């Protein structure tokens, strides 16, 4: 069978229009956006236009967007930057055990610096309840960081409700929206968030670029030092071609969001229906009601994750065991461990399928049938 890419949650192919925009900027606009001559002004115009496009996509102000090298840097800048800038108000931070490693490791770093971290447990569908956050909130809490949609199981968190809870508290609210952006309607004003992280390569943009929304008035230390680029929050000459490509990807994502969300949701349902019709033993990890449309995490009892992935790859199907940041190690998913416990069979037999650009209904049917056959063979 033809190769089928079902790992869009790890990274997505660059949209042809994005590649064209990047090539155009690379070959025609080589000035430094900080230079005052005409070459610099041409570059600055592209940078300003991109910042405006990105800001409008989440109902933010132009001067609330800081371009970064991706979601990891955005998460680090938000968490470490806010923590260090607000030491006088406390050293308590709240996060969850199912965050992306960019958040988990940033919080662990701060823990080693003397900050106190409360690690919230999810329920067995991967949801962090508002009540759990409320019970952990203290007068000296300075930051709450809860992801918008989980990258491994797709569960969407009650971000607006958590934001409302924190509206009259000193704690800043950060959400990693890397996996949700482009498929979920995000309005930072309605969500009551102070900081929000996004990465371009999840929405058919280039790798190596992202942004951090920083609400006006948020007290945050810069991540790098040097020039005065990116509102004095991130020194260094901007990656102009990638930023221009990012803006193009954002424009396409906004124009096609409803259509894509519905289509990916159908792909997910069709995949499940094929598995059901093949009468194999499986269970879905995560919420189906509160979920991203493109992420499907499935447990196949009686199988081994490594054997499943190898057999899928040999059949031309690209899937994963969870976060791409741990690819190659096949370590138990920290998300599934948090949801089901370290002794659960699910942490050793679960596969993530994620849908995106150029996937077709026919591909999904073929992939699901092949997956069922592999699972049946291994379950014997």
From TrEMBL:
<dbReference type="GO" id="GO:0051536">
    <property type="term" value="F:iron-sulfur cluster binding"/>
</dbReference>
<keyword id="KW-0808">Transferase</keyword>
<dbReference type="InterPro" id="IPR015421">
    <property type="entry name" value="PyrdxlP-dep_Trfase_major"/>
</dbReference>
<dbReference type="InterPro" id="IPR015424">
    <property type="entry name" value="PyrdxlP-dep_Trfase"/>
</dbReference>
<dbReference type="InterPro" id="IPR000192">
    <property type="entry name" value="Aminotrans_V_dom"/>
</dbReference>
<protein>
    <recommendedName>
        <fullName>cysteine desulfurase</fullName>
        <ecNumber>2.8.1.7</ecNumber>
    </recommendedName>
</protein>
<keyword id="KW-0411">Iron-sulfur</keyword>
<dbReference type="GO" id="GO:0046872">
    <property type="term" value="F:metal ion binding"/>
</dbReference>
<keyword id="KW-0408">Iron</keyword>
<dbReference type="Pfam" id="PF00266">
    <property type="entry name" value="Aminotran_5"/>
</dbReference>
<dbReference type="InterPro" id="IPR016454">
    <property type="entry name" value="Cysteine_dSase"/>
</dbReference>
<dbReference type="InterPro" id="IPR015422">
    <property type="entry name" value="PyrdxlP-dep_Trfase_small"/>
</dbReference>
<comment type="similarity">
    <text>Belongs to the class-V pyridoxal-phosphate-dependent aminotransferase family. NifS/IscS subfamily.</text>
</comment>
<dbReference type="GO" id="GO:0031071">
    <property type="term" value="F:cysteine desulfurase activity"/>
</dbReference>
<keyword id="KW-0663">Pyridoxal phosphate</keyword>
<feature type="domain" description="Aminotransferase class V">
    <location>
        <begin position="4"/>
        <end position="364"/>
    </location>
</feature>
<dbReference type="InterPro" id="IPR020578">
    <property type="entry name" value="Aminotrans_V_PyrdxlP_BS"/>
</dbReference>
<keyword id="KW-0479">Metal-binding</keyword>
